[in-house]
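Most newcomers find our protein records easier to grasp once they have seen one. There is nothing in a record beyond a sequence line and a structure line. Getting from the letters to the tokens is the skill we practise here. An example says more than a description, so a record of this kind follows:
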Amino acid sequence: MVQDRHGKHAGRAHDATKRSSAPVFVVKENRLAHGALERLAQQDREGTLGLVYLYGPSGVGKSHLVRQFVRDVQRQNPKLRLANSTASEFAANLSDAHVNQGHAEFEAQHTALDLLVLEDLAGIQGRTAAQRMLVVILDELKRTGGRVIVTAISLPGRLKNVIPRLVSRLRGGLCIPIDLLDESSRLSFARHFASSRQIPLAPQTAELLAKKGLGTPRELLAALVNLDLNARRKQLSADATLVEAHLDSQEAAASRSLAVIAKAVAKFYGVPISQLRSTARLKRSVVARQMAMLLSRELSGKSSAAIAHFFGRKNHTTVVHACRRTRELVAADPTLAHDLAQLRLILRRGEV
């Protein structure tokens, strides 16, 4: 039986799966992913690979969807041969196998699986041996009809230091984004969380939480729990005033300098910061520069003139045009919309 690096049996749902038994709450942002996993749960071994690749920012519910899937398929087949780990654990286990001369056994265990679940694929970046082994495993599971679920924060081609063969295998699956919640979905989640956790939530308060734009279910739940605790501590109801104060304090804490925003965008797109502040017209540099200007306008609190000066432009209208153009592109391009959502979350959380 396959084990994770802590010596626990990966053939069983890991601890996080057992902890989170609440059913998935389906909204439009996760409906496609939820449907794909439901279809995968019903798939028998038919000689074709069922690979679902879920990608989106941290906190949007990828792991929660996967845990429900694992529970469902294990209920259908208690003898299911399953390996469920993060990509970092996969790479660490492979490294241990090399040291202990168990490389062949590691490969044999994984290629005999009914289901491979590999979460947070970024953990395999730069680990060429683990990537090559994963290619071997995916090819064999495709031959035998095994099922595979992979989660990541971005599309396969956006990962850094990943061999082309692995990118190709992953692109051969069904790649499904899970985006940040829009206002209507935030409202639905706020009501759902309040009901399921018996948190008093007035309609006006729920609408305010939705309007303020907490983009992931995880953040929305944390805000609700904090509000409820503060309200109980002060013997008040979680009314609009308390919500405003809580969210305004979060927004102030999330304010970012122009230098930090530029650094985050440059790192995300793999371009030097100097190119963001230059007149380079390479497509990747232009997209990154315009994205940085839009995020600067949203998150820094600086004027268009100050942003223009930081990015080496003489006129504030350059920033105004860049913001307008980027919003138009984001509205028409789901990949760019995903990039913007991811960068907002990175900056809000200070993960630079």
Notes: The two ends are 39 Å apart (CA to CA).
